[in-house]
Amino acid sequence: MTTAEEQPAEPELIPARIQDDIKYWLLRLPRGILSVFVRLAHAIVNGIRSFLAGIVSFLRDPIGSIRAFFVKLRRELDTLSTVQLIAVLGVFTLFLVAPLISVVYTSFVDPATGFFTLDHFTRLFGDTNFWPWQYNPDTGEWITYTDTRTVLYAGDLLVIQGWDFGAVLNSIYVAIVVTMFSIILGVFFAFIIARYDFFGKSIVRTVLIFPILATPFIGAIGIKRFLGARGFLNNLFYTTLGWLPFRVELHGLAAIIFIQSLSFFSLVYLNAYSSFMGIDPSLEEQAENLGATGFKLFRSVTLPLAMPGIQAGAILTFILSIEDLGTPIVYYDDLQAQKTLAYQVFSSIATQSGSIDPKGPAIGLILLVFALVGFLVIRKYASLRSYEAGSKGGQWNPRTRRISPQATTLLYLVLIPSLFFALIPQISVIVLSFAKQWSTDAILPDAWTLDNYSVLWAYENVANSINLTLIYGAIATVVIVLLGTSAAYLIARRDLPGKTALDLLVTSPIALPGIVIATGYFTLFYNTPFFPPGGPAFLITMSYTVRKFPFTVRAAYAGLLSTPVVLEEASMNLGASKNQTFAKITLPLIGVSVLAGSLLSFVYSVSEVSTSLILGSVGREQAPMTFWTNEVLNATGQYGGYFNAACLGVLMMALQMLVITITNKILGSRSSAITGI
Amino acid sequence: MVEIRLENLRKTFGDVVATDQVNMTLHEGELSTLLGPSGCGKTTLLRLIAGFYTPDSGRIYFDDRDVTDLPPHKRNTGMCFQNYALWPHMSVFDNVAYGLKLKRVNGMKYTKAAIERRVNEALELVRLSGLGERHIHQLSGGQQQRVALARALVIEPDVLLLDEPLSNLDAKLRVEMREEIIRIQKELSITTVYVTHDQQEALSISDKVAVMDHGYVQQFGTPREIYHNPQTVFVADFIGRCTFIDGKIKSIGEYIQVQIPSNQIIAGKSTIDGYPFEVGESVKCAMRPESLYLERTDPRDNEISGTVTRTIYVGNATEVYFEVGGIHAQALLRPDAPVKAGDKITLYARRPDVMVLPLGGVEALRKVPGHPLFTAPAPSTASSNV
After folding, report:
1. In a domain, A668, yes or no
2. Partner-chain contact A305 B89, CB within 8 Å
3. B4-232+372-385, which class in CATH?
4. Dist. CA A394–CA A663, nearest whole Å
5. Are the C-beta atoms of B62 and B4 separated by less than 8 Å?
């Protein structure tokens, strides 16, 4: 600098000591955590504010607003798009919005009198399963029913379980812990794959897609037996090797945390990976040029730039964890696992009779609020992602670094155990499906067999349910493709008034708990032609349609965005109408994206758990495969138990793997379509 | 300030040779430009100097320090990327302060006050005082460019590296920022390497220009040398405009006599000191449009006759395109020159203005003993005293 020679009055340099850095860090940590929450709150407040602003501007000139709305609508819509719009809105109103409103209504209305009441909620919070701090009016004392024991010791068995604070708090803290584990695992893998080149990387990359295969439901089936008190790990380390002084078993909420983390981290991984790959390399090179390396570079530049993707993945994990019904249901024999919101909704409405306890909808409402808030925050962050792609076209040098053989060895020392853990759900299900018999102290099953798989065709109910599932999935997929393409086209290409609301509506199912939707089907449709007693087939199909809609919409939308509008304008310039252009130009161009999206919709329909279990319980003859997986798991006799249930899990995983491999090939690196945000 | 010496640098990417045989000394305090068409290896060379690439062979010295194997962050260079590479999650101030916060001088770090003072000074230098709290996306393209410059300069780098810094700006802003960069560079007299594909830009700002093509440095010299004494056909063609006429050398004396296909003789001079031309050698005669005249000034001037195909009036001159024995030639005449399409014209070129160039590109220069492009540069005594 020009003044470099001048002697400054105060010393410019002070000793750089490591302890100062650490102190600085520790002091900043609380503020950093706080700022995350402040920003979350901001996002929520801003969303509400802009919503209110819309209402206010409408109220200021209601007639003018309505007229402007219709003028614009008339200009943008022709016959085809009117039909498209009405069909999309019709399906979503009938099978998503109406049931949800019905849930809200039911939870505030006294079924006997039809008047407004908060009774369901007061009853809920008077239940120790829900809220552990209860007031006893007789004694005037507060009684606490929490259980904070995490390690129980009995004989040679060490049981690890979670804290128990009642269903509401349990669900929240489990979701938070699962999200934290998922972030750590997901970011760790994403960073290694995105930034390092090493021997066998492509294999590791492929393997990392697997965790997304099994739903926590299927994973839980495997893990419960595989890692149980007399499962693989205990028999290896306690019985055979004697390295452990006791058997270790995960119970209750601890088990749920473990299984969900292993299933959901891949969501964070996929999002973080695409974020890391999306960072303009010169942004990191500039930091290196200025003296940043290693962790400093990662923390100050790489991580903040990847943050939007990581946060989106994390919030999705949070929502999926809080609404997950599969894991608690596999662990239902453990009282603690029952104390989650999802399980409580399930147990209050899943009855053969179809009658439901109004506290089900009330719990559903609580779940819905969490999920909706999360969803709005996701949308906020997903839209923030645009800034990472803000490169102005610098030279694109991939930032992958080849590492030395020694470093590779070191890396694998970390990778192999972590990958093994990440794949335990898949491995265990596969091992169980081939087990003939597993004696109590053996590491692996003593005898192997293919006979377990006969459950797929020899057990009539199961065979039937597989066929039904494929039919439900196929019908749902056809409807999804028709409506999803329409919706994506309307959002991307037509300047409809309120199209952001339409976009919000058709992508929201990704975050709306299936159990709440299923609850709404009960409160709204039970005993109507849509939902005759014992006949849930139609609503199962519709629930798949609505819930797996976002995958196709997002894929079609991405396809449309990458197709220049000028191609369509050229067609219209040459005399084709909007509809002809849509059929002859647009559809062929985005066909591949739609195909990929619809495959995902199909496979996620087939493996859907929560609505399937709830709706299936009132009509076992028409219940889908996931319902019967649970039935087989809990049944005794020829076709019952872990080994047979695992076969159904393997079938599901094989199907998913096939589809995801195909989609990956088609969509390339646009992996965000898989997570549907 | 340092002197940069590049010795026999070679960098390949797989089978593609990005740059090869680079021997150059970039003197301290000078602004040197790497100029060439896209894909010529100029950015590769810059990134080799910055340390983002390691050369396959050859060495890089900053003064007497061999920095070839030093990682980028230990070279104390300040680099500006083509797309500015400003971090969108930091304010202007934080962007500029980043390097200072990391900088250690003998194990000491800068105090908060010192960082603040220096950042403000740097922002003042690039005329952005008071914009420290802005976010990057609130700045215009020119302002972003200035932030990138301030960020590179604030760490008091030994070397300033600029990768096409003006290519994202509009024409007017580009000229403005060009002046700004020269001003700052002279003010700080910092050794600077500047990459560009714009020859006007290169000629107007540089102390030295290295013209590159296909990974090779074709010529390294002052803008004047590059323009008036191009060493290869590529350089003559890439810098400014030229008419080329093929021929064979008939005799070599004070001037070289070249017989062209129409059997005419053109006399010109060699632009390469010590190049051993031989009688009978195929060569190219190169003429700048502005060195062709309507009037003869010397009886020994070369005569070039042809048919005018097109004239373009450009205000301060008339561009004349004409054909000489199947060759398209061009001349820049005075604006009122009485020439129109279809005319037969005869133009005159002074013998010193005709440049006789060997064929074979840069490889031909190997025939010159000890040519600096193929000889590792010796450390200059001046720099080792610093």
Report:
1. no
2. yes
3. alpha beta
4. 30
5. yes
| Distance of alpha carbon B151 from the chain centroid | 24
What is the DSSP annotation of B199-216? Answer: HHHHHHH-SEEEEEETTE
Do A71 and A83 fall into the same domain?
no
pLDDT at position B356, please?
A: 94
Pair of tokens at residue A31: 């503020």
Residues with Cβ within 8 Å of B259's Cβ and at least 6 positions away in sequence, in order, are B247, B248, B249, B250, B265
Q: Structural domain tally of chain A?
A: 3
Q: Does domain B304-347 have CATH number 3.50.30.10?
A: no
What is the C-alpha separation between B25 and B6, in angstroms, rounded? 6
Residue A535 burial (C-beta neighbours within 10 Å; 0-12, 13-18, 19+): middle
Residues A62 and A183 in one domain: no
Q: Whole-number mean pLDDT of chain A?
A: 82
What is the amino acid identity at position B33? T
- Please report whether residue A348 resides in a domain: yes
Contacts of A387 in chain B (CB under 8 A): 88, 137
Pairing of strands B282-287, B292-293: unpaired
- Return the CATH number at A598: 1.10.3720.10
Q: What HEC string does B251-277 produce?
A: EECCCEEEECCCCCEEEEEECCCCCCC
Asked if A514 and A420 sit in the same domain, the reply is no
pLDDT tens sequence across A491-522? 888 777 777 888 888 888 887 888 889 888 88
CA A396/CA A436 separation, integer angstroms: 55
pLDDT in tens, A59-97: 888 888 888 888 877 777 777 788 888 999 999 999 999
Whole-number pLDDT of residue A331:
86
Tokens 């949800």 map to which residue? A100
Q: What is the ipTM of this complex?
A: 0.70
Note whether B73 contacts A: Cβ–Cβ < 8 A.
yes
The total number of residues shown for chain A amounts to 677
Query: Would you say residue A503 lies in a domain?
Result: yes
**In angstroms, what CA-CA distances link A613 with A117, A342, A345, A356, B383?**
30, 12, 12, 15, 80
Chain center to CA of B179 = 17
* Domain interval for residue A496: 79-109+457-653
Q: What is the pLDDT of residue A162?
A: 85
Residues of chain B with CATH 3.40.50.300: 4-232+372-385
Residue A152 sits at φ, ψ, to 5 deg, of -115, 145
> Does residue A54 belong to any structural domain of this protein?
yes
Residue B6: pLDDT band by 50, 70, 90 thresholds? very high
pLDDT grade, residue B249 (50/70/90)? Answer: very high
**Chain A nearest CA to B138, separation (Å):** 13
Most trustworthy range by pLDDT among A314-323, A566-575, B189-198: B189-198
The string over B83-113, giving b where at least 16 C-beta atoms fall within 10 Å of a residue's C-beta and e elsewhere, is: bbbbbebbbbbbbbbbbbbbbeeeeebbeee
B281 shares contact with chain A (CB less than 8 Å): no
Nearest CA in chain B to A303: B89
Distance of alpha carbon A227 from alpha carbon A432, whole angstroms: 12
Q: Pick from B77, B83, B118: which is nearest to A391 by CB?
A: B83
Partner residue facing A387 (CB), from B88, B155, B168? B88
Q: Report the residue from B102, B109, B125 with minimal CB separation from A14.
A: B109
Mean per-residue pLDDT for A377-391? 53
CATH number, span B241-290+349-358? 2.40.50.100
